[in-house]
């Protein structure tokens, strides 16, 4: 059955679907970055509110700023912007059609339609999922990267920007001139302090072309921090076949685990949906929640995906079932990451490691090692290196974290131990690959990437451990290094 408004009532009886009148919904949110995560997480929370008869004036308008986003717009438009979510619980699969999105802005050079939509006074929240590496952060200083070509373009062409942030600024300029007020800018990406980082990017870019507007944005817009959590694999042939098993023809289904969490700072300048009525948490202390999740879950993904890639393990659940990699995660997380994480209401770091170990091990979640290992240059710097720095300051163990970095370096050499090729998997792949190949003879060459490691390579304790592990991986192999760590 082709997914559409007309066929909703004809779907198989076991498929949950919107009970609200989608034709009566009005927009309140523009969301930039309509990948699987948003549709399986934030859009689902809003859908659940709508199922209760609430938030009918908060429907989502999708948006994108890349050429590839237009293909996604067409896929979703053909099915009235709905998505089938398939929950992959080991106890049994279930499906639900989510209808909280009602439109998708045409993707055009200069982003005119996006700017026009965000300037509409009905839009009170502009949200983003643009990946950790999408905020134009200087890796070494963690400040705003004003020299990036996209940023330079937007600063000199503020009416025809390339970036989502330039488009937001152009829309806010129109809103200020029209007297329709600001909107809340809401990051939903895996960045610690994601709201503060979004503020930094938007205000800094605005200041390059219009300092007065930058001051207005800084004073009037709000940028709530948040923590988002749900494992959502990429959609491929397996997922497209799976949705058909439920009797639905959906060109963009989303599979997800049976766990979600959304922790949000309650800082919305133009109102918000009552997401807390469907399980989200509003708190003044997002940082503790996000630190636990980013360091243990996101950092843990890097701990296991790099050796998994080197050893030709295809899926994350396979890594956890591997006799060495699963044990490696539990030891590194329990002994080296946990000491740098504070408890949150209802959850200790130790209990969270157990939860994540179970979630990673879910065989129903066909999450590829390649997807998880993607963009290590952003993920290692954001998820692991801060933990290493804290552990060094505290004098707690770092050998497993140093081994994790050595495994990343070995992965970036571009071959698995069975001789197969690892295709480029990072925006900085050429640079990483060159450093990894140089590190075969001179392991220090990897740590000399100051844009990634800063002065961390100068720390004798970390550098000595890293160099020892990288040499062992080179001379004896990945499994020998993992065994040596596990028996240490």
Automatic annotation (TrEMBL):
Q: Which residues form the Mannitol dehydrogenase N-terminal domain?
A: 28-277
> Which top-level group of life is the source organism from?
Bacteria
Q: Which InterPro entries match?
A: 6-PGluconate_DH-like_C_sf, 6PGD_dom2, Mannitol_DH, Mannitol_DH/Oxidoreductase, Mannitol_DH_C, Mannitol_DH_N, NAD(P)-bd_dom_sf
Q: List each coiled-coil range.
A: none
Q: Which GO terms describe its molecular function?
A: oxidoreductase activity, acting on the CH-OH group of donors, NAD or NADP as acceptor
Keywords from the UniProt entry: Oxidoreductase
Q: Does the keyword 4Fe-4S apply?
A: no
| UniProt domain Mannitol dehydrogenase C-terminal: residue ranges | 285-467
Record protein name field: Mannitol 2-dehydrogenase
Organism annotation: Primorskyibacter sedentarius
